[in-house]
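the two lines:
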Amino acid sequence: MKTLGATRLVGAMVVAACASRTLSSQGLLLTPTSPTQTVAEALAKSRFVFTARVQRLNATTTGSVKATPNSVIVSVRADSDTVWVAPRAMRSISGRSITVVVDDPQPLSVGKVVIFFAAGLASDSGLALREVARGNFSPSDRDTYTAKLSEAREHIVRQRLRAAVGRSAVVVLARVDSVTVVSLPDSLAAQASFEHAPLWRRAAIQVERPFKPQGGGVGVGAVLRLLFPGSQDIGFRHAPKPVVGQRYVFLLRPASVLSPRNRIGIDPNDLYFVADSVDALPPSDTTRVRLVLP
Amino acid sequence: MPPTKPKKSKKPALIGTIVSIIGLAGAGWWLPSGSAAVAYGVDIVDVVPPDWSTDALPQPEPNVAVNPTNPQVMAVSAILLGWGEEDVGFCPPDKGGIVISLDGGNSWSLRCVLPLVANTLGARVAGDVSLDFAGNGTSLLATYLSPVFGGASVSTLRAVEITGWDDAQTTIATNITPADGIANTDLPHSAASPAAGSNTLTVGVNKIKDDNCASGTGATGTMYWWINGTEGSECVERRASRGPTQAVRPAVHESGRAYGVFFNSVTDTMRRLVIVGGNVANANATTATFNQLVETGSETDPCKDGDGNVGIRLTKCIEVLDEEVIFSDPPTPPAMGGQIRKPNQLAVAVAPTDKARVYIAYGSKTGSDLMTLKLVRYISGAKAIDKVLRTVHNGINPAVAVDAHGRVGFLYQRWVVRGADSLWETNLTISNPNQTSWEAHLLSRTPAAEPQYWYGLPYIGDYIDLVAVGDTFYGVFSANNDPVHHPTARYLRPLDTGSPNPTLPPGVPVSMDPFFFRAYRTP
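prediction for all of em together
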């Protein structure tokens, strides 16, 4: 069971009051009216967020990237609390010289300190990233950016959750009463079994608290049936696997949404399904779910 | 930090070869016969890049492609190579990674090139990646599934043409399939035509559709092809089938002669190996071509020959281990210490020297084996297998290639039990041009219980890969990455060299890494 990932930022997760100052910088627009919106968009596309000093222009640290006007060597700051996001399987980029391929090199100059949002371009004897967004940075901005990244992370989580709630016909807090294998007629069972088939399982859940639809439709104590992928294939590694006796906030879609090929032999009437990690949340996410209800 | 190599002599290839031969002798394997001297040296490289010092992700199901016009250029793919969730992925969320070498496999660069499409809410996966270089050498062709499961749709096939690999800034992927991909396809396996100047891609798939190939049955084996960008497709499994055609493996000769092999399901556990033949060169891309191997007769018993249908059935009804035996509910560590996937243990290659000579490896359950691999030779037009060349007990993941002189390379992994321990071996065996003698190389031997079976992911994976360019074989396999089990392999990722034998850095658990190798003729 996974909570939404608001705690994945590297470094401090201090949630400060919204910054009163405006951080305006080329390539990364931060305005008082929507300070987190743009940071969230950049963060959603990024695998790295860090500060660095421009070392050399029109240069590169790896043979995989040719030196062009758009390739810049930067020295990542050695203090790890200004590397906010990086893949945890990689060795630290703190204190290293790496290449960043930027869209517009003009505002950059040697010695300039910048915060970069970036994603991977090449990893070999050197490291090269492609810029997603950037902004000016000074040490006094650190806490502000930490706060903004935390807010942006929460914004992304809520955005995703809002989309999931929006596509769901039913949202409930419920307890899992039973889990069974979906039994199909012999010939259909054979056709429904292929490598990336979901291998559906069926769960019966008892509603403790309905959230959607509001004003009736699903009552406390109602028993609902849902499908979830039983496959252990990597494609389903984040699919919910409800456990009997456990409670979840379920975001349920009608099984009729599934193409017939995806539910061979299964009658979709009065049946729902969950397939993504966000479709079955721990009860602790109830508050967040309520905040995004229409 | 520079790439780390275990300490070894200045003649690594020879040492490696000697070690592998000794290892085989110690294991009771036969030694080379029919030739006086060992003919191949083997270099092995763990391709996980240097920066991935704490990487512990499982990276099985590797695939390899080598540029036929410039064998210094090659590419390897594997699950979770560069992509993944936000705290483990390197590539942008909409790109999957492959590694590319421009120096013959000595160094590897992780590149983010495969366009990924999200499933219902953002999860992006590249599944079942196949790589091939086009015969013209100017394109790297990649086929894969994205998304693997779409919620409202089953998995979607994508094929792209990758160019500009000299500079990561200019490495781009251009769609071969339509922008939305080809929906409801599974288990793609691809083969490019090796003909000089050609740009032809053939892909075998399990096509999940309402009007199956044999109406009302599970027959779904389908071949797609693109000839200079023009798409065609055809059902290749024409017989009734109890279940979906799990895999269709293609092989293409430079003349355009093409083959596909797959299993026809007679019952849940009984299947027959089928080969179809066709042509993908100078053909009208919209008309059927895989109809050139036909059984004569009117037999109706599916376990007997001669039913008058397209596709020669090369085996009798044979037992194939069914998935439910492995994917138990609740999940438990499966047999063989790893995972045997759906019955898709298949590999095929056609001899560059003879378009009628086909080599097929397939798996079935025989005797006390969980899986028995057989490598066989088939001569096109014949009604049966020409000769069984090799038999491997408890082997999986076969891969076959034929070099420019007709030498056959057979790569596979084998589960071995030694007392209380179980091991995974990765073996390469290479024949002489007539397949009358074989030279065997043990590429790795690792404990099957480590890393531990990780619920929800392939462990040993569904496939490994082998290709040949000229008289050199190039391959890739995934294995336990503890350096103690790979004394001759070179590691790009950092190792701890403080102890007498190199180890992974402190705190980094053992996991599955993709290992590239090159088997080359020695003077």
